[in-house]
Amino acid sequence: MKTIFSTLFLVVFSVVFNAQNRWENAKRIAAEKNELILLNFSGSDWCVPCIKLHKNIIETEDFKKLETDNVIVYLNADFPRNKKNQLSAELKKENVSLADQYNQKGIFPYTILLNSEGKILKSWEGIISGDALAFSKEIREIKDNQKP
């Protein structure tokens, strides 16, 4: 009986723990580590500018260094269309909620830099001009100008 109860408790605990969404987790991490949040709205399998943005900026070492240097927490709100690329129901729901709050016009790609409380510091509509190094430098400068 104890084994059944323990197993049931662990299952319930893991479901509740995993139910914490990525957005709340990103805000928590950003607050703990004094980081900013970079939220990107994309259509990974249909939006050509989104695909280019990911290839030329987000997937580069210059951009990834922002995460390893504790400058940003990166969050992608993806809206794929192809059946084979569909997200889980929970992730779809979270992405729709983020879009309702931060991307009501439905712009793709749309990238937003926020503080740990969710306040918008800067936004970029469409593909980001310049290269990953210039974009990373701009984000670092914004973070450096934030009050601790």
From TrEMBL:
This is Thioredoxin-like protein. InterPro entries: Thioredoxin-like_fold (IPR012336), Thioredoxin-like_sf (IPR036249). It comes from Epilithonimonas arachidiradicis. Residues 31-133 form the Thioredoxin-like fold domain. It holds the Pfam family Thioredoxin_2. It comes from the Bacteria.
